[in-house]
Design a protein that fits this description.
The protein is α+β, with helices and mostly antiparallel strands and 232 residues long. It folds into 2 domains: 71 residues; 150 residues, Reverse transcriptase/Diguanylate cyclase domain (Alpha-Beta Plaits). It contains 7 helices and 6 strands; from the N terminus they run αααβααββαβββα. A 4-stranded antiparallel beta sheet has the order 2-3-1-6, sandwiched between helices. Helix 1 packs across helix 2 and helix 4 runs antiparallel to helix 5. The chain is elongated, with a radius of gyration of 28 Å.
Length: 232
């Protein structure tokens, strides 16, 4: 059954290419019947080459789009890597400056991620990073931008959001991530670890570029982390 279907597909592709070649020759407005057979064959061959170039262009375009998509993605998570995140943040900064709309950035650092790596291994740590990335995407709008900035650090650009909106979202995300508990189901002697996260939230101001905004949010995150340590 499979063997009989493959030639049929090949015949269909051949017929489709032949029809496309005829349409291209017809579009040229050439009276093929008035030409010698050698000229007819040359024109049809040229039309075939043009179609082949079109197909190559479309294939290369798809491959380029695919490569670009992969280059923008974090190697572990289905979100932007730092380079792509900074590029998208710069684009949103440009729009915010042009239209006068608010833009917030949340910098997220996982609190006890090293404990998880040390106690359960890096494979479990990778799973935690993936789960956190999926959680962040799930709890932001489609217009917002999520990226992994490195290690256990993440960034979220909240478009059309003022500082109060950003801080409320950061508080909510801290609560959600703090509810994540990591344990080894096969080795119950290992003590579980409650993950936790610290968020720093800043509002974009004119004159601040993407790298500067990330650095400011990073500093705010460290102040938040120290506040939590002092309150224990």
């Amino acid at each position: 059954m499979i063997e009989s279907h493959a030639p049929q597909n090949e015949e269909e592709r051949f017929e489709a290419r032949r029809s496309a070649r005829q349409r291209l020759v017809s579009a040229l407005g050439v009276d093929m019947a008035a030409l010698p057979r050698e000229a007819q064959a040359a024109i049809e061959a040229l039309a075939g080459e043009v179609l082949g170039l079109r197909e190559d262009r479309e294939r290369l375009k798809k491959e380029l789009e695919s490569a670009s998509h992969l280059a923008d993605r974090d190697t572990l998570c289905p979100i932007f890597n730092r380079r792509a995140f900074e590029r998208e943040l710069a684009r949103e900064i440009s729009l915010a400056g042009r239209y006068g709309t608010p833009l917030c950035l949340i910098f997220i650092d996982l609190d006890r991620f090293k404990q998880i790596n040390d106690r359960f291994g890096h494979a479990t740590g990778d799973q935690v990073i993936q789960h956190v990335a999926e959680t962040l995407v799930e709890h932001v709008r489609q217009s917002d931008i999520v990226g992994r900035l490195g290690g256990d650090e993440f960034g979220i650009a909240l478009t059309h959001a003022d500082l109060a909106d950003g801080q409320a979202k950061a508080t909510r995300l801290e609560s959600i991530i703090s509810a994540i508990t990591v344990r080894d189901a096969e080795n119950t002697s290992l003590e579980s670890v409650d993950l936790g996260a610290s968020c720093g939230t800043v509002l974009w101001r004119p004159g601040r570029d993407a790298a500067g905004l990330i650095a400011e949010a990073d500093e705010t995150m460290f102040r938040r982390k120290n506040e939590k340590k002092r309150s224990r």
